[in-house]
Structure formats: structure tokens, C-alpha cells
Amino acid sequence: MFDKVLVANRGEIAVRVMRACEELGVETVAVYSEADKHSGHVRYADEAYNVGPARAADSYLDQEAIVDAARQADADAIHPGYGFLAENADFAARVEATDGITWVGPESDSMESLGEKTKARTIMSAADVPIVPGTTDPVTDPEQVHEFGDENGYPIAIKAEGGGGGRGMKIVESPDEVEDQLESAKREGEAYFSNDSVYLERYLENPRHIEVQIIADHHGNVRHLGERDCSLQRRHQKVIEEGPSPALSDELRERIGEAARRGVSEAGYYNAGTVEFLVEEQDREPGELLGPDANFYFLEVNTRIQVEHCVTEEITGIDIVKWQLRVAADEELGFAQDDVAVDGHAIEFRINAENAADDFAPATGGTLETYDPPGGVGVRMDDALRQGDELVTDYDSMIAKLIVHAGDREEAIERGKRALGEYDIEGIPTIVPFHRLMLTDDEFVQGMHTTKYLDETLDPERIDAAQERWGTETTTDADDEEVTEREFTVEVNGKRFDVELEERGAPPIEVGEIESGDGGDRPQRPGGGGSDSGGDGGGASAEGDEVTAEMQGTILEVNVDEGDEVEAGDVVCVLEAMKMENDIVAERGGTVTQVAVDEGESVDMGDLLFVVG
Asked: Does 537 have pLDDT greater than 90?
């Protein structure tokens, strides 16, 4: 087993991995950005290294900084968690090529072949796994989309090769949408995955989303750990996951599980992963299950641990993260397929800092004035928060996960009601009210919901009523406290350390110049310190009307240059937020005197984008 593992992630998943390491007697190393220097995963780790400023591209996605931190910490393994670099085959290859450091995940070649969707479809087809009718080669020309539509009908899904979670996927409802949607999918693929290759699939109108957890070792053993039902989604983003599925018969469940095993075996895959499927719904009554003849199709492989892995851990008793570490250390799986048994039912609720009544708009700030999570029998919390923490809004809006486990689904729903009712969070909005609503919703309670239910059927007024009944408001500091930062060099037991202290609410104190020294034997943190305060660029001095970001998101396209003439209503850029592309327009005509953003850049609400003079 490893001596020390660096977790290349943040928040609750970093803490989840660190807990598994601690139980295995392995020391842990955190990495953090400037925005996360007070975050929970930093508190939990044995060591923590600053890898750069708040912008993810300059910190959590900085491959060189992450590997440098592992070297300086003398870590002998890197676990990527999920998100950020977890499915980046180039990063996995970089770690594999680094002497003395092991990648906790599948081999980079497997990640590349299964991460590119057309290659994955070819592999699955060879393993006799059903795939949705579609292309196995990238599509570049609108005429190819028209030809596919003529043969297979509409709607068509255009998907980015490196996509996932709905990013880089566009739905073509009719031939006149082909050109715009093809360009949009390619643009998102390039912005999010540095890969503008796209492929086509027949779009299933009303499916269930079923995924199978697998774990495989270096000795040829592949196990599936049952399925999870992730059909309750909003814009292709999962919000509640559960296992086992309330819709599958045992015969269909076994067919899907074995298909997943065949597929990963064909790919020569090892470590943890998830094989995702779409299952076509049938005309059925509540309580009636989908039979063994139901159609199911391969969707994609997620070559990492997933947010909802906790569901499988609760119903199988298998610690997936520990087995990731053991497999990476070349241990053989210690259980046979027949040893995997499902006990009861588990449901996971993603606790996002969003206001469901405001189109699930993410919070723009706030302080956890009260944070009192639930407990009791069958309740699990995966989080990294503590009361008094300030909300970090630079990254994903998910702040915690609540998982309930019970003897059956009915009891799990009742336990979920109790736990969500106990969950006391004040200071920021969350989607806890939405979750409480869903546990009283007939369609969900009966297990009849599909991936389209939230977007097309659920009455938004019911969400508004739930938010009004159970929601909380965002709070911010009453006044902006002045923060004074001072640096000292101290010596402890003959070893020198540079120490940064923050004092809030006090006037600056003149301390004179302090000799920082060369740091002695202390390893230097990569990317730390520096005199650049990394301002937000909002104080532009150019004269004219400022065009600012209406919400937090990512700039997908910049349509103007400095000096261009624009008219009122012209689209100056495209901003992606909450899986929707939003056209940002000039409020009046004039000359563009400043362009403050680039394509692919993340922005916060209120950030300056352009100035029109």
C-alpha cells in the first residue's frame, strides 16, 4: 500500500478520498487554490500545497503544478477524485511517466479509448453491447447530419467526443436546426474538452438513465456492483440518484450488469468506472417493472469514481475508494461476482448551493451562518463544510451529498424526508426544498419518472411553493471587513517556515520589512505567494457603456474585437451557464473600446466583458 496520496481535487470528494486513505494508514496531501485556502479539504489533509489562483485553469487544472506538489510532498500516488483532471488521459499519462508516483485510476490508454465516444461505441459493439444507432466516426459537415436524419429520423443528438453530463450535447429537432446545433456542439466541445470532434446518435425521447458500477484489477478480474438509477435529471445533470432501480426486473438488471462487464473486459480496463445506459420506457402501470425484453443501449463510460458512488457503497457494503487504492497498488480483488449482494435501498441527494425556484440559479456568495447536518440510523453525509465557512463560488455548486439507506425504497423515502427536514443550513440557498418536494411527488415516489420529467412535466409553481416553505436566504457580511495579511518567518525546532497571517476587521499595522530568508529545508509550495493579487478586472477605466456578465459561467465565443462597430441587440459573446448558451448583446450601438474576456474564460456575475463607447 502507498505511504502518501495526493488528492488532486477539492471539497467533499477530496475529503471522501482522504478518509479512505486514513483508514488504510495512508497519509494525505491536499492541493488548493487561493479561493480554497480555508476550505474543508485543506483542514482535513495532513499536508496542503497552494497550486495557484482561483481560476481552475491556473490551479486545479494545472497539471505541472499538481505533479510538482506531489513530488515536493514525497507522495507516491495521485488520486484525481472526479471532475477537473479525473478523466484527462494526458494527465494520467503524465503521472504514469513520473518516477515514484502511481496514478490511482485506469490506464491512460484505456481512458483515451473509452473517453472518446466513437471509440467507446466501437469497443462496446465488439463486446456485443447494444449501442444507440449512430456514427462511429466524427462528423464535420452539416450534410452528414442531414443524411443521418433522413435515414434514422429526428430528433438527433450531436455529442462532443469528450463530453459528459450534458456538456457538448445538442438536440436537433428538425433539419433547419442542423447547422446551428452542429456549430454549437463543436464550440462547446472545444471550450470544455479541447476537442471539437462530434458524433451523432438517434435521440431517445423518453428513456431511463441506468448506470452500472464496475471495479477491475490488474489480474483480469472484473466485477459489477449493481446498478444505479439516475433518471431524475435537469438539463442532463443528475440531482437525485438511487439504487437499485425501482423500474427494472431482476432479469433486465442482470442483462445490463453483464453487458457492462463484457464491455470493460473488451477494453482491457482496470480500476473503478461506470458504464452508463439508456433504457427505453414501456407502457406500464405504477408498480409494473420493465421486463427482460426492454431495450437498453450503451451511452458512455465514466473512467473515474462518480458523485453517486456512495449509493452503491451503501447497498453493497463495498468501499469503492479503498478498492481503487488497493487495485492501484496491484492488489487482487478480494471478492467474486457471486459475493456481491444488494442489501436494501439507498438514495443520494445532491446538495447544491442553488435556488431551484430561480431556475436553479447558483448562489453568488454567502456565509454558512448555520450548518447542522442530519444524523441517525441509515444517514450518511459526504461534505467538507463547517459552520462559519464562506461559500466558494468559483467552481461547481455542489457543496455536499446526503445519502440515506434503508431496508426498502419506501423506508428510504421516509428516511430521506426525515433527514432533509433535519438538515439546517442558513446563509445560502440550497436545493433541499426541491428534494423535499420530490419525496412527495407521485411520479418519483412511484418510480415512473424519466430523464425528461423535470424539464418537461413538473409544474414549476410547485418548486416555487417548496422554496417559499422550506428555503433559506443568502446572507453576506453586513459590511466589508478590511483584511490585513502579514508574512513572517518563524523557526520551529530548528526548521524555518514562512507563515501568512490574516487579521479581519482591524486596521493595517505597519510591521516594517521582514527578511523572508531562503526557506531553509522547507519544501517550497508550488504556485504560492506572489505579489499578484489576481484582481477581477472589474475596474475598467475605458469610457463607455459596460457590458457585464449576467450570471456565472464560461465564455464560449467572443464575436467582436476592439474597434468593431456594433448596433443595439448585436450578440457580442456567448456565455454558457447551467448548461444553456446565453447570447450577451450590446444594449446600444457604438464602438467596442475594450474586450475584457477570452474564449474559454470563466466569469462571475457582474464581471466586465466589454465596453462600448
From this structure: no
